[in-house]
Design brief:
Elements (H helix, E strand, L loop, with lengths): L1 H20 L11 H4 L2 H20 L27 H10 L11 H5 L10 H23 L3 H23 L17 H24 L8 H6 L1 H11 L14 H24 L7
Helix pairs in contact: 3-6, 6-8, 7-8
Length: about 280
């Protein structure tokens, strides 16, 4: 016990010494150096996210309630059947026109909506910038802090903060809240919730795989070594048995189980390709 406490104190003091001596021009604000280093980019990214939320909630859409963010169709007993995507879909239909909109979406099969909605639309692009930049910021933490303790504590902090913000927006529920978690709209709560999980998992994986070397990364290592082959293969077999099948109940749980099963099959294929030294690259 004494040895473990001494070791912990030594590691903590070493981290503080390394961070203090790290060549950074922010002096006493070194704890915030990752944010200060990129404050201009943060202002732009936050402005885009705020604009997306403001437009989604405030833009009047003909025949639909202001701020509707649902899938339309049978949602809410068909009360807003032609309001799929709300303001996001309305803007895409005006600017892109239905002819140039992506039409392959699961919500149409679940809610039987006849309205065209592009999951890669204009408004969703604004919040997807935040998703990308949160990933960039996770990498910036590696550059601003050269100590495992500081890196993991920063990632954990970001994971907690983004998770709480996501919970506030969606009321810690699956389909409710001011801004529900919605991948098809790339809603702000979806961005923050997924970012929170990513930060927390990154912290865990960095501690287990990089710092202690307790785990090699398998079986995900095999998929990463052949990501191109798996991506192309998935596109070719996405509607082919045994990777997928015609849903019996056509609900979220069954579709999730189908996706997990398909992913497991591709992991097995990736493993055998790895064992045979077969790698597809560009």
């Amino acid at each position: 016990m004494t040895f473990q406490m001494t070791k912990h104190i030594w590691v903590t003091n070493t981290c503080l010494t390394i961070v203090t001596s790290f060549p950074c021009r922010y002096g006493q604000y070194i704890v915030m150096s990752d944010i200060i280093e990129s404050w201009r980019q943060w202002l732009l990214v936050i402005a885009l996210a705020v604009a997306q939320v403001a437009i989604s909630l405030a833009l009047p859409v003909p025949g639909c309630p202001r701020g509707y963010l649902g899938p339309g169709g049978w949602h809410m007993h068909g009360q807003y059947a032609n309001c799929s995507g709300g303001a996001a879909s309305y803007i895409d239909r005006l600017i892109l026109t239905p002819r140039h909109m992506h039409k392959l979406t699961n919500y149409k099969y679940i809610y039987h909506s006849s309205q065209v909605h592009d999951i890669y639309g204009i408004l969703g692009t604004l919040t997807s910038v935040l998703t990308v930049y949160l990933g960039v910021h996770a990498g910036r933490i590696l550059q601003c802090y050269n100590c495992t303790f500081m890196r993991i504590s920063r990632w954990l902090s970001w994971g907690v903060v983004t998770g709480i913000l996501a919970g506030i927006l969606c009321h810690f529920s699956k389909e409710d809240g001011i801004i529900p978690v919605n991948k098809s709209l790339w809603s702000l709560s979806f961005v923050l919730a997924t970012a929170s999980m990513a930060f927390l998992f990154l912290s865990l994986l960095y501690f287990v795989a990089d710092y202690h070397d307790w785990w090699s990364g398998a079986p995900f290592l095999y998929a990463g070594m052949n990501s191109l082959a798996l991506f192309v293969g998935h596109k070719v077999t996405r509607h082919v048995f045994p990777w997928t099948w015609k849903p019996f109940y056509n609900n979220h749980s069954e579709l999730l189980a189908m996706d997990i099963w398909g992913t497991a099959l591709w992991l097995i294929i990736a493993y055998f390709m790895y064992r045979k030294n077969c790698f597809v690259t560009v």
